[in-house]
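Sharing a chain and its predicted structure for anyone who wants a worked example. Both blocks are below, sequence first, tokens second.
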Amino acid sequence: MLSEKIEMGLVRKKAVSTYINLSSQPKMTSRGANSFKSGNAYEKQIHSILQRAIIHDIPIDVLSTSAGAAAGSDIQIRAEDGTLIGVEVKNKGAFEGGCKKLTYCDGCFGIITDCIQKDILGDTLLYGGACFPYYEGKRTAADWEAVQEIFKPDIYINAEPDAVSKYYAAQGTYYIQIEGLGLYHTGHDVFELGVPEFSAAVKLRIRCTKHMKNGIPTDITAALQFDRRSIKKSPYSLDGKLPPVMQLQAVE
């Protein structure tokens, strides 16, 4: 059964994390409105291709779902036994793979739900134990200005090369298609496409975020950030050379 194969691929290894210096981080491109629009267009392109795909001589059932920047798989494929196989689609400007919001409790920041970000963070003490103003109901510009020097620098924590794969596999996303790099699996190649596992230099980025451009920070988030330069290009891609077991039906 395909579902049994998937379960075998979900064995999680404990991540080892250490602090790294902020100055050693490469400059990343901003994920603004243009980046989101570009990602949406690429996702639609891949969705259109998969709708014509035949894997191991069997047409696949591609659901018309799109997550965009929200949680969940960008594209879902229904397997013969009903199992949903998620596909994550990232454009050439993407560098993040999963974000979680931090909470403040008993003098420290943490993540409530079980996830790879929580494993990486561990019992790390952030910002010297200082409390985030917004979480205490202190929501004026003066409240933020009083502590902004404490919370201003982003914090980076080293993660294992398969951290992004673990994050997506835990959500039922078993493939990642990256524009310019190709197709990867996230721990188990359930369709036996012959693609490599996604692996990269990954760091957990801790930073303050805000809902409004000119407002004060309202949240502290932990996002997996991968360095595209560290990723080995896949031999196969959904928008290029397809895996040998995959063909496209002719457009009518």
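Comments welcome. The chain has one domain: 2-248.
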